[in-house]
Specification:
Layout (H helix, E strand, L loop, with lengths): L1 H25 L9 E8 L3 E3 L2 E4 L3 E4 L4 E3 L6 E4 L2 E4 L18 E6 L33 E4 L4 E4 L3 E6 L5 E10 L12 E11 L7
Antiparallel strand pairs: 1-13, 2-3, 4-5, 4-6, 6-7, 8-11, 9-10, 11-12, 12-13
Length: about 210
């Protein structure tokens, strides 16, 4: 009787040990922190300007791909100082792309690191007739314009939280409007080249 009980307990101990080892081996890996990425020299040429009507194809950007795209899977698009989102309706400007997604933008004061949660849904804005989700123009838009030097400077402390074309989220800040992001742009600096710093949230989480 004693030998039989000992045998049963030995088998039970082996089963428990095997089960613990199996659980340890199949335990999911911890989720890695979201990566801050930088996209440099996004070219956003335009025609016209200086009092003339502006035009030209918008440069489309995808946060999930971290790339300029030519298909409809874009989140934001750039031409000169104008930034569009892939959501809402046509604004009514020349050569603007058709909106095929449900993107929107909520503008938050802070730094890229300090914005850690998705803003309330009611704060997100889409493009509409004569309305830009990301306002254009000096001071009230995303940049300041120096009429003496003709330099465009992104306004510090503005973080743009984007609901992407397919319902995911990203946050970004604009570091520079000039090629190679010079620390102090000058009259010789080449404009219409964005440098962006961003984080893309690929999951359905409500935080970054």
């Amino acid at each position: 009787m004693f030998k039989l009980s000992f045998f049963k307990y030995s088998i039970l101990a082996l089963v428990v040990l095997f089960s613990a080892c199996t659980k340890k081996e199949t335990a999911p890996e911890p989720v890695s922190a979201l990566e801050i990425k930088t996209f440099s020299n996004l070219s956003a040429p335009q025609t016209g300007g200086n009092g003339q009507p502006t035009g030209g194809v918008f440069t489309r950007f995808s946060f999930s791909e971290n790339a300029v795209v030519t298909n409809n899977n874009w989140d934001i698009a750039f031409r000169g100082t104008t930034i569009l989102v892939n959501g809402g309706t046509q604004i009514g400007i020349t050569d603007e792309p058709t909106r095929t997604g449900n993107a929107g933008v909520s503008i938050v004061s802070g730094t890229l690191e300090s914005v850690t949660s998705i803003p309330n849904a009611s704060t997100f804005v889409q493009d509409a007739t004569a309305i830009y989700a990301i306002p254009t123009g000096s001071n009230n838009g995303w940049y300041n314009y120096n009429a003496t030097t003709n330099i465009i400077s992104p306004i510090a402390g503005k973080v743009f939280v984007v609901k992407t074309y397919n319902g995911k989220y990203a946050k970004f800040e604009i570091l520079s409007y000039y090629q190679n992001a010079p620390t102090t742009p000058s009259a010789s600096s080449v404009s219409k080249y964005y440098t962006l710093r961003f984080v893309y949230q690929p999951n359905s989480n409500t935080s970054f």
